Amino acid sequence: MNLDFYKKIIENNKAWSNSKLAEDPEYFKMLAEGQSPPLLWIGCSDSRVPANEIIGAQPGEVFVHRNIANMVIHSDMNMLSVLDYAVNILKVKHVIVCGHYGCGGVKAAMGNQSIGIIDNWIRHIKDIYRHHRQYLDSIINENDRFNAFVEINVKEQVYDLAKTSIVQAAWKNGQELYLHGWVYGLDTGIVKDLEVNLKDNADLDKVDRLTI
Ligand code: CO
Question: Is residue 1 over pLDDT 70?
Answer without folding.
Answer: no
